[in-house]
Amino acid sequence: MPAPNEPLRIGCVQYLNARPLIYGWPGHVTLDHPAALCTQLASGDLEIALVSSFEFLRNPIYRIVDSISICSGGPVYSVVVAYSGKAPLAEIEIDPVSLTSVVMLQYLMIERGQSFKPVEMAGSFSSRLSEGRARLLIGDRAIRFRQKFADAYQYWDLGEEWNGVASLPFVYALWLIRPEVNGAKSIADRLRTLRDENLADIERLIAQEKEFDHDFCRRYYGENLQFAFGEKEKEGLGAFQQVCQKCGLLPKRDITFRVV
Q1: Which end of the chain has less neighbouring CB within 10 Å, N or C?
Q2: What's this model's pTM, rounded to 2 decimal places?
Q3: What are the residue boundaries of the structural domains of the chain, listed by start?
Q4: CA-to-CA distance for 18 and 212, rounded, in angstroms?
């Protein structure tokens, strides 16, 4: 733990989908990919982080910032399997920085009665697919790939697929606070206020975006993403926990959502 009065050690996924939850935070933020942040949070190098929801399900020691998540109630656009030809998708290149999405893919393939072989990347994430291969893409990598290749490939949107199976939102990421951190409620209140301010003035946030087209950002934030963690979202996360346990992807145990 840091000495008293040291700045909060906070981390956040470095994707476009997280901007409304972190833009304007008054202090240093460690920006990284989901798997790296999960490791840093688990080791205590970070005190709070916006990380994969599966990190909480597999290690439920954390407190959850209530009412905030990155989730979708249908197509999410940026969590997809890109492929050509027809399913089944026998070999899928896996994005190693993902956590929740890989587990969700495993479950959805089981639900379809299909198996798949995770394989190493045949090139970069922006390269064309090798013959007979599919690729799991998340976050900004998925957006860049789809915008580069457009209709050259088909895209299996995992948010849409989950909603079709469960009829519930899917929660991709949560703010998690380590158990020893003091003042968790105050930190959570600041994050909720920041989220509300950014969503209330989303055009100001979009105007700062240098890489992605502003019209795309409006559609992405307005049509694909949601940023709540209410009763329906908690029900969706609980349902994901249950199916992961049923499929052997998580140990069978009761988990309490300790929110602040």
Answers
A1: N
A2: 0.93
A3: 10-69+170-214+226-246, 79-166
A4: 14
